[in-house]
From TrEMBL:
Keywords of the record: ATP-binding, Nucleotide-binding, Transport
PROSITE patterns: ABC_TRANSPORTER_2
SMART domains to which the protein is assigned, alphabetical: AAA
One GO MF term attached to the UniProt entry: ATP hydrolysis activity
Name recorded for this polypeptide: ABC transporter related protein
One Gene Ontology CC term in the entry: membrane
Classification lineage: Bacteria, Bacillati, Bacillota, Bacillota incertae sedis, Caldicellulosiruptorales
Pfam family, one: ABC_tran
Length: 213
């Protein structure tokens, strides 16, 4: 029997007096590909930030493997989060970012080089390895951010609009990567305006509706 990896009950989030998530309840199971849907302003990014433990100021219940998410230490939480806006160290080149991230996640030199080389090839980043983030197009920034997020060993991948600004080849590559991640038994939670790219992978939809004040 399969058991839920996440259980939410009456999950509520406010920004000041503004209700963003109003008593949301859901379950997510291991090895599910979960698509968050909803209009702009419905709280999708806010929910992803909560699940990723970037926002602990919420009420209600949200458990990961039976333990309240608020009690789990971030370093013990086996997720990787790809935000909707790339975040970089402006003084590091693309290559330095990938080397730093892989070492931070404990990959050994040979293993790190192999994995980095695969993602650099898949996303056609070889000619940009010595570029600083400020020198990259928005699409290439997105690809570097995807590489950094995928270098981590995780049980749950959380991604906010990961297809944004990607060219057609990179869209196909990301779809294949997500397919492989799903087939390996891991859980994926994401939001995307490009649902046609992923509809064949979706196991569960969670719909958020904009709160009416």
């Amino acid at each position: 029997m399969s058991f839920p990896i996440y259980i939410a009950a009456e999950l509520t989030k406010k920004f000041g007096n503004k209700m963003v998530i109003d008593k949301l309840s859901f379950e997510i199971y291991e090895n599910e590909f979960v698509y968050l849907k909803g209009a702009n302003g419905a709280g999708k990014t806010t929910l992803l930030n909560i699940i990723a433990k970037l926002d602990n100021l919420w009420s209600g219940e949200l458990k990961f493997k039976g333990v309240s998410l608020k009690k789990i230490k971030l370093h013990n939480y086996p997720i990787s989060y790809i935000p909707d806006t790339p975040i970089f160290y402006e003084g590091l080149t693309v290559k330095e970012h990938l080397n730093f991230i892989s070492s931070m996640y404990g990959l050994k030199d040979e293993e790190a080089r192999e994995i980095v080389d695969i993602y650099v090839s898949v996303f056609n980043l070889k000619e940009y390895l010595n570029y600083l983030p400020s020198q990259l197009s928005r699409g290439n920034k997105q690809k570097v951010m995807l590489c950094c997020g995928l270098l981590k060993d995780f049980e749950v991948l959380i991604a906010d609009e990961p297809f944004n600004f990607l060219d057609s080849d990179s869209i196909k590559a990301l779809f294949e990567i997500l397919s492989i991640i799903k087939s390996s038994g891991k859980t994926i939670i994401l939001t995307s305006h490009e649902v046609e790219y992923i509809k064949s992978l979706i196991d569960r939809e969670i719909e958020l509706k904009r709160s009416v004040e």
